[in-house]
Write a structure and sequence with these properties.
The chain is mostly helical. The chain contains 20 helices and no strands.
Length: 418
């Protein structure tokens, strides 16, 4: 069935839920990438090197697991919908506050808070979406949902190209507060997860099933994760590789285009839009392929196909070749990533489905939170952004393919409360 065909099978309520989850992740990503694209300008204003500003990316990623745990536990206990709304308001207001940071130190503190809010959105949104959508076409929906991250990058790139020269980096952060408006859509159109509602009904109704469910909640998320520990630990390692794959090819790339390739902000923004579109295409294509091939094979194929793209991506000698390399690289990177939302939710039990996938996702980010700063420092020390980018892709692509190969396949698993 085609992508459009899968959407036609959805009810109105399911469509609204999917749109809300997609937009939540898109706008969260927008707020993250505004800083990534503005790093050189921020460094210039505060009279520091770009690597110092990349410390903000480190802090954001370092605090994301805290947000995943806090917001995930709240969503498992009190429902996905209302926690998602609170989460969106949180990261939007913090983004707005960043526009008025008087120093780099204050900005770093605010980006740590932003990381806490950002860390909660993915797990809560994914749980709400995949507990509401049918299992048929789950890979397709996963590919599209995850590419909300790429869509956010496109919006940030477009904002940089269109508005940076007139409003500066502070003005872009003010624009980044717009996601707060999404809350009105969630309030009016989105319904609570049917799986979470069923679980709550069992707990309230009494009887053996209710006692078991209530016991699960009383025992706490920590005990649930302990029972889930072998798979959970594997997911953390897997997400470490995934995070290194995406952040290792994205976070310092705008800085590379500016510092090494000497491209102007408008051109960098245009390239960002183009590779964002490539990311979305990759996520949809490999997400759909995962419905036929299985989740593992789709991840492995996308990861390995990124290696032949390195000469264009890191060593292109013209704006065209660099742009083409960036598009092809992100097609493969986000192709692999497009499988992640479905894969993590399929492997996670219902009582901790808003907590476990998001926490594994963000702990992987914590392990790799040093990545962008380390890449920037290495490039400044050795004077070679291309070599740093190339080595990163080779190591991480091979590691990701190997980990996916030893993982468990879970395509098509039911999302019940049991």
């Amino acid at each position: 069935m085609s992508v459009i065909g899968h959407f036609r099978q959805l009810t109105s309520s399911q469509r609204h839920t999917f749109v809300a989850a997609f937009l939540g992740w898109t706008l969260d990503s927008l707020d993250f990438f505004i800083l990534v694209f503005c790093a050189p300008a921020i460094a210039a204003e505060f009279h520091v090197k770009p690597s110092a500003v990349q410390g903000a990316v480190f802090l954001t990623q370092a605090f994301r697991p805290v947000g995943a745990l806090v917001f995930g536990m709240l969503a498992d206990r009190f429902g996905r919908r209302r926690v998602l709304m609170f989460n969106i308001i949180s990261f939007s207001l913090i983004e707005l506050t960043c526009a008025f940071a008087p120093s780099l130190g204050v900005l770093l503190f605010l980006r740590a808070l932003f990381g806490l809010a950002m860390g909660g959105e993915w797990g809560v949104g994914a749980a709400l979406a995949f507990e509401t959508l049918p299992k048929e076409g789950r890979g397709v929906f996963s590919g599209i949902l995850q590419e909300g991250y790429a869509a956010g990058s496109i919006l940030a790139s477009g904002a940089l190209a269109l508005f940076f020269n007139s409003i500066g980096w502070r003005g872009l952060f003010i624009l980044g507060a717009a996601p707060a408006l999404l809350v009105f859509y969630v309030q009016a159109r989105v319904e609570e997860s049917p799986v979470w509602i069923e679980g709550r009904a069992r707990r309230l109704a009494g009887g053996p099933q209710a006692n078991a469910a209530e016991g699960a909640f009383r025992s706490g998320t920590g005990e649930q994760l302990l029972e889930f520990l072998p798979t959970f630990l594997f997911l953390i390692v897997l997400m470490t590789a995934f995070m290194s794959f995406s952040h290792g090819t994205q976070d310092v790339y705008p800085t590379f285009l500016s510092v090494s390739a000497k491209l102007p902000a408008s051109t960098i923004g245009l390239i960002g839009v183009l590779y964002g579109l490539g990311s979305i295409a990759g996520g949809i294509v490999f997400g759909a392929l995962s419905e036929r091939w299985g989740r593992k094979r789709a991840i492995i194929t996308a990861a390995l196909l990124s290696i032949p793209v390195i000469p264009l991506f890191a060593y292109g000698h013209s704006t065209f070749s660099l742009g083409a390399g960036a598009v092809l690289m992100q097609f493969m990177v986000q192709g692999a990533w497009g499988v992640v939302p479905a894969y993590l939710t399929e492997l996670s039990p219902a009582p901790v489905r808003a907590t476990a996938p998001g926490l594994a996702y963000q702990l992987g980010g914590l392990v790799t939170s040093w990545n962008s700063k380390a890449q920037a420092l290495a490039a400044e020390k050795w004077g070679s952004y291309p070599a740093v980018l190339a080595v990163t892709v080779i190591i991480v692509a091979l590691a990701l393919a190997g980990l996916a190969a030893v993982g468990r396949e879970a395509k098509g698993r039911e999302m019940g409360v049991a």
